[in-house]
Amino acid sequence: MPVKTLSDGRKAWQRRDSKSQLTRWFFTLIGVAIFVWCWNRISEATTWFFVWDAPSIAGDILARATPPRWSYIEKLWVPIWDTLNIATLGTIGALILAVPVAFMAARNTTPSTLFIRPIALLIIVSTRSINSLIWALLLIAIIGPGVFAGVVAIAIRSIGFCAKLLYEAIEEIDVAQTEAIASTGASRWQVMAFGIVPQILPAFAGISVFRWDINIRESTVLGLVGAGGIGLQLSSSLNVLAWPQVALILIVILMAVVLGEWVSAKVRSAII
Amino acid sequence: MSAALQARVGQRWRKPAFIKRPWLRYTLLIGTFLYLVAAIASIEVNWSRVYEGLDRGVAFIASFTNPDFTSRATDIWEGMIESLIMTVASSVVGILISIPIGLGAARNIAPLPVYVICRGIVAVSRALQEIIVAILLVAIFGFGPLAGFMTLSFATIGFLSKLLAEDIESMDKSQAEAIRATGSRWMQWINYGVQPQFMPRLIGLSMYRLDINFRESTILGLVGAGGIGATLNTAFDRYEFDTAAAILILIIGTVMFLEYVSGLIRARVQ
Amino acid sequence: MLRLVELDKTYPTGDKALKSVDLEVPQGQVLALIGPSGAGKSTLIRCINRLVEPTSGSVFLGDVDLTKLGSGALRRERRRMGMIFQEYALVERLTVMENVLSGRLGYVGFWRSFTRRFPQSDVDEAFRLLDRVGLLEMADKRADELSGGQRQRVGICRALIQNPALLLVDEPTASLDPKTSRQIMRLICELCAERDLAAIINIHDVALAQMFVQRVVGLRFGAIEFDGPPDALTPDVLTRIYGEEDWEATIEKVEDEDEMVTA
């Protein structure tokens, strides 16, 4: 127990001894210094005149944006449909690709720990670290703008996410059940179908719905870089500063997000 | 042989269906099938364009073996630094703000009016996409990292406060009650009875959020809110795949590094 | 029928789980394997059907040396060895019927098993076995809805539908209450007698083993310490296997007052 002897000889209890207290102060100081430096850099790159003017600009935008142009909704039905498709088809595509990757990445099912597992992990890390908007940019450069690029971008982005959660589920399965199936003389694939798949099916269903919910959000903004969906309308309305249309689109996106979350919560509680 | 067995032997056996009611099962099946057909049919794919693109795709993948860090070195360097700065600053501010809001959004320690307001903030923050918030903030505050910083802070608040509040709501009541029973003030009660219970998880979640903030900061540049995104966008626009590859490698490397560090820290505090 | 010759198992950690074990089990004999935890009982059973690869030595099932087989041939031989597990090891999210039928996986192709179209003879046999153990009504229930004793009976059906020559039974009663334990042990021994099966039963409970089996083998530190009839288990022998303890109460004959296993 850290105890300090006071100048008059009495002992006083302390939470930490003076050495760990010092290191703590030291790291706090470094932390604060880094933050201050970061803030300075941001501040240098900022035109503070605009910032002081921000309240009036915000008020101005709000005044222009209200009321939303409700009649514009007629032009939004097709983009909404596209957005839904990008999310759904992208999720399905991602799941089809993620399942083999997950089996290759899980320690207990990988065919080779030395060669195949690192490749699978690399696929997971690289697809996960790069945002779907960047994937969309890349795909537009390669296969041209449109809904298809959006579907592929969402699919690629979701592989790593789904495969990671899935392979963690595979690694957590009960080995006794697979052993029991193997001991009946079942083949490798039968062990997979009877011993492993039933155990990870609930996790798989949960992951799919969870990712679909996220993908609904992401697909609403893919259009900003030209990959289809309602983001295209948002981008073109912003370009011409048509704030009433922007307001309507934002409302639609909000509703889509809330609806997506509601559906996914419903489905998940039905599964589990 | 019992009568029940008699009735079963010789009969076909089928696995009981997942959805018991036949009409619901078939409606769902046919509905899903029709939707998929309609969805796939509504996607226009310009296959000749895709075919042409394959060359570019191969070129892009090939460029990963030969990334170009040098020709746009200053742009890349400044972009990455700016992304990191926004990440750090927004994480710090976001975490500091999300603690009081998280406390306020926990029904078991906050009074109802505070609870409603804090839950409202959380809901708004979670429903709005980062990139959309960034667009609005750029329009209001002008181009630059300040808008990005504010966007990420705002998103951090929604993420952390919600998880924090859920954590506090599911905490062990008896520990908190024991502290309250000593006659402590509200602040003391939080400090001694509640804080020790959520602190390890808060640190873990904060590290996780730092990681997310960095990944998000790489795209904010697309709408002018600072960071590496602008450089990356330019690289793609000019088909400079080797520069783009270099940036992507940097992003992936940084994310892996952050995940590694956060793993270390989480292992230490838990 | 089953013959182990100088079977050795050393784990990568350096633990010697089995030291040159020789054992012969004739057809129709039920054998109990006793010994302290860590004596290598579980390893011995798993080395026979090669869920654990033996380090050296041979396992003969009939005339076939199991340790020399490739994976395809091993799978064909595994069909002749039914295994019953400690924690039942049923696939919990599958139905009782699917669990029983999974015993036939070695006999049907992948696609037929994947679409659950097992041959009618297998389906009939599954129903007969479920009826025999009193679980016919449970056929379409999910395995995790059953109680411990019921699950172990499903595990027995899964092993028997393989039409095995040998049963490998790993602590069948370890997670069951005393009454259910006896019922399960009796069921296994009855079924072995009905079908003239040999069985190796790993068991902790010495009294329970004495009640039902014809031969007891005691394992200590991976080597056979005792091999003989159940009445030859004197306190002296138990001390050799388990170490010093007062054994009189353990081997006292317990009166068997339970009725037959019924539905």
From TrEMBL, chain A:
Residues 80-264 form the ABC transmembrane type-1 domain. CDD domains: TM_PBP2. It is found in: Cell membrane. InterPro entries: MetI-like, MetI-like_sf, PhnE/PtxC. The chain crosses the membrane at residues 21-42, 86-106, 113-130, 136-156, 191-212, 242-263. It is a multi-pass membrane protein. Keywords: Cell membrane, Membrane, Transmembrane, Transmembrane helix, Transport. Belongs to the binding-protein-dependent transport system permease family. This is Phosphonate ABC transporter, permease protein PhnE. It comes from Pseudohalocynthiibacter aestuariivivens.
TrEMBL record, chain B:
The chain crosses the membrane at residues 23-43, 84-104, 116-140, 242-261. PROSITE patterns: ABC_TM1. It is a multi-pass membrane protein. Residues 80-262 form the ABC transmembrane type-1 domain. Its main location: membrane. InterPro entries: MetI-like, MetI-like_sf, PhnE/PtxC. Keywords: Cell membrane, Membrane, Transmembrane, Transmembrane helix, Transport. It is found in: Cell membrane. Belongs to the binding-protein-dependent transport system permease family. NCBIfam families: PhnE. This is Phosphonate ABC transporter, permease protein PhnE. It comes from Pseudohalocynthiibacter aestuariivivens. The gene is phnE.
TrEMBL record, chain C:
It holds the Pfam family ABC_tran. InterPro entries: AAA+_ATPase, ABC_transporter-like_ATP-bd, ABC_transporter-like_CS, ABC_transpr_PhnC, MetN_ABC_transporter-like, P-loop_NTPase. Gene3D superfamilies: P-loop containing nucleotide triphosphate hydrolases (3.40.50.300). Residues 2-246 form the ABC transporter domain. PROSITE patterns: ABC_TRANSPORTER_1 (PS00211), ABC_TRANSPORTER_2 (PS50893). Keywords: ATP-binding, Cell membrane, Membrane, Nucleotide-binding, Translocase, Transport. One of its GO terms (molecular function) is ATP binding. Signal peptide: none annotated. CDD domains: ABC_PhnC_transporter. This is Phosphonate ABC transporter ATP-binding protein. It comes from Pseudohalocynthiibacter aestuariivivens. The lineage of its organism: Bacteria, Pseudomonadati, Pseudomonadota, Alphaproteobacteria, Rhodobacterales.
